[in-house]
Every structure is written in structure tokens, then in C-alpha cells.
């Protein structure tokens, strides 16, 4: 099934050239189907690239997904045309009275900056708090995962001496979890960040579960026990060349970055990167959208309760019925 996107969104041409099924709003309006309503809060500078990466993953399921794009402020962007933002993005005031099946909050290039020093931190907190009563399930990616764990559960991140950049081996910590259905015991995922969560603190927290971790990159998948919040500390959405582009960008900026680990053939930055995460990246998003959104969300979104959907309908997930 397709992902439904606004008419004329630039990502459509890219996705269609890759034989990915997308559907315009005008075409979807002719179908009598209740699509999943997913809101994407895009904090990345190059919003068009991030949109395309996430839409690739969201389109790889049997579900029709209706996408709304959200921006945190209306300031001019150096990396995204203003007319694109004004055409395709909503301000929070436009959605605060609505309910959504899913919310994705992307990473942000904020490096080692303390959360309280981020100029739009109050806005981030407002969206996170709103999501706990207006969204069936929230997916936090990379920086957003650390921000969500800090704001919702008071857990602080640890700033690293060197950037965690590369493709790392991960293992499942938990078995028989719907999110991990189809996962291998060992799988790979890309990371690109300057901070890390303390795994012991995550495992000790009474409201959280660590589902997958890496000896090099730490915790990768963490979920709240009420199943409303999923924290992914890496980047399952990254395309093959994203880490390469980041490496050469930082090199040109004089940052002297380390070569991303387990990424280039023979660790040679001039060689072709090796993509080893596409399968599990797609499976992760597919499982999230199916088991934690579609299987739990009410048909009428106005019926969304402050009580967690998992508590209301966990038997539906276990049996596979909606």
C-alpha cells in the first residue's frame, strides 16, 4: 500500500523513480479507506532529504499512510527553500487540536549543546507533552531519542570524546517482542551522534525496556513499558551515502572527523560504502507502524484516550487482530 503525501512534494519524483508506491492527496481522496495519520516533526536542516528517507521506510508496508509535516518554528532555513516550508509544513498551532496515529520526531544537528540551551527547547517539550495524549505511538530518532528520554524520564546523556559514527553490530536483548518480529539475533544499524545514554540506567528504569544494544554504540532500541514511546538512538532511515556525506562535510569544515566505523570498504573513505542496515531498518518501521500504531489506534481518532492504547488493546497485538 502507498504512503500518501501532499500534491507536488519533491520527494514524490525521487520515490517514484525508485518504484516506491506513493499516492497524491487528490488521488487518495477517491478511496474509501481510513489511512494511518502520521505526523513528522522534522528537525533536520535539509528537510527534503530527511522527508525522502523517512517516506521510503513508511511506504514499505501494506498500510496506507497519510503524512503531515511539522516544523518547530517559522524561521528561514539555510538548507531548505522557504516556499517549500510554507507549502508543505504546518505550524504546531495548526495540529494541536488534532489526534494522530503516529508521530516521528527526527534527529537534529545540535552536537554537544545542552538541551536547555537549544533555542526551541520549550517548543520541543510542548510537542512531546502533547504527544502523550494526542498520539497513539511516538517514534524518537537519534537526538530526539535522547531529548525524549531526558524530558519524559529524567535520564541524562553522556557526551562522548569522539563522535559515534559508523555502522555497528547489535544484538537483541529481549525476545518475543512485536517490534523485533523477524529480526535476526545480530543485525546492523548506523549511528551518527556526539552523545550516548547509560545502558545500565536505561535497564534499571522501571518504565523502560532496552530491546537491542551494541557493545560499541550502546543502547539502540528502547521502549516505554506502556508502549507509547519508542526511542531509536541511531538512524535506520539513512541512505547508503549519508554517513559519507557527513564525513566529508565535517572534513571540509575542519572538524577532523574520524572515519565512520565498519562503513567504507577497507576503511578507505574513497571506496564505496557498504549498506548493511536496509533490511532491518525497513522491518523496524514496518513493525512499529503495524504493531504499535495500526493494531492499537482507534478507528475514530477522536476516541484516542489518555490511557495508553497498549493497556486498552494489548491482546490485539498478541493475537495479531485489530
From TrEMBL:
Binding, substrate: 163, 192, 249
Molecular functions per Gene Ontology: homoserine O-succinyltransferase activity
The keyword Acyltransferase belongs to this UniProt entry's keyword annotation: yes
Pathway: Amino-acid biosynthesis; L-methionine biosynthesis via de novo pathway; O-succinyl-L-homoserine from L-homoserine: step 1/1
Residues passing through the membrane, by range: none
InterPro entries per UniProt: Class_I_gatase-like, HST_MetA, MetA_family
Catalytic activity annotation: L-homoserine + succinyl-CoA = O-succinyl-L-homoserine + CoA
Feature type site, description Important for substrate specificity: 192
UniProt subcellular location: Cytoplasm
UniProt keywords, alphabetically: Acyltransferase, Amino-acid biosynthesis, Cytoplasm, Methionine biosynthesis, Transferase
Chief place of localization: cytoplasm
Name of one Pfam family that matches: HTS
UniProt entry tagged with the keyword Transferase: yes
Gene3D superfamilies: 3.40.50.880
EC number: 2.3.1.46
Enzyme class: transferase
Sites annotated Important for acyl-CoA specificity: 111
Catalytic residues as annotated in Swiss-Prot or TrEMBL: 142, 235, 237
Homology family: Belongs to the MetA family.
General function of this protein: Transfers a succinyl group from succinyl-CoA to L-homoserine, forming succinyl-L-homoserine.
PANTHER family according to UniProt: HOMOSERINE O-SUCCINYLTRANSFERASE
Name of the molecule in the record: Homoserine O-succinyltransferase
Organism the protein comes from: Shewanella dokdonensis
Amino acid at each position: 500500500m502507498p504512503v500518501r503525501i501532499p500534491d507536488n512534494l519533491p520527494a514524490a519524483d525521487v520515490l517514484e523513480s525508485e518504484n516506491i508506491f506513493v499516492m497524491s492527496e487528490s488521488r487518495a481522496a477517491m478511496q474509501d479507506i481510513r489511512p494511518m495519520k502520521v505526523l513528522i516533526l522534522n528537525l533536520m536542516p535539509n528537510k527534503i532529504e530527511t522527508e525522502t528517507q523517512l517516506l521510503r521506510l513508511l511506504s514499505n508496508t501494506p498500510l496506507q499512510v497519510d503524512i503531515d509535516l511539522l516544523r518547530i518554528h517559522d524561521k528561514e532555513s539555510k538548507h531548505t527553500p522557504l516556499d517549500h516550508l510554507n507549502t508543505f509544513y504546518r505550524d504546531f498551532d495548526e495540529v494541536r487540536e488534532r489526534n494522530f496515529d503516529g508521530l516521528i520526531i527526527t534527529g537534529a544537528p545540535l552536537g554537544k549543546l545542552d538541551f536547555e540551551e537549544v533555542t526551541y527547547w520549550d517548543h520541543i517539550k510542548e510537542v512531546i507533552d502533547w504527544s502523550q495524549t494526542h498520539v497513539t505511538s511516538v517514534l524518537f530518532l537519534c537526538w530526539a531519542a535522547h531529548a525524549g528520554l531526558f524530558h519524559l524520564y529524567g535520564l541524562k546523556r553522556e557526551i562522548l570524546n569522539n563522535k559515534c559514527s559508523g555502522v555497528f553490530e547489535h544484538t537483541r536483548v529481549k525476545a518475543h517482542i512485536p517490534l523485533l518480529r523477524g529480526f535476526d539475533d545480530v543485525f546492523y544499524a548506523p549511528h551518527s551522534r556526539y552523545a550516548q545514554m547509560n545502558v545500565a540506567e536505561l535497564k534499571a528504569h522501571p518504565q523502560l525496556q532496552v530491546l537491542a544494544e551494541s557493545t560499541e554504540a550502546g543502547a539502540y532500541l528502547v521502549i516505554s513499558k506502556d508502549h507509547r514511546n519508542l526511542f531509536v538512538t541511531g538512524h535506520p532511515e539513512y541512505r547508503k551515502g549519508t554517513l559519507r556525506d557527513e564525513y566529508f562535510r565535517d572534513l571540509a569544515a575542519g572538524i577532523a572527523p574520524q572515519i565512520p566505523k565498519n562503513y567504507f570498504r577497507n576503511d578507505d573513505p574513497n571506496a564505496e560504502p557498504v549498506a548493511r542496515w536496509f533490511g532491518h531498518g525497513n522491518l523496524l518501521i514496518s513493525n512499529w507502524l503495524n504493531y504499535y500504531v495500526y493494531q492499537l489506534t482507534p478507528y475514530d481518532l477522536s476516541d484516542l484516550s489518555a490511557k495508553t492504547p497498549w493497556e486498552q488493546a494489548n491482546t490485539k497485538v498478541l493475537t495479531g487482530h485489530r
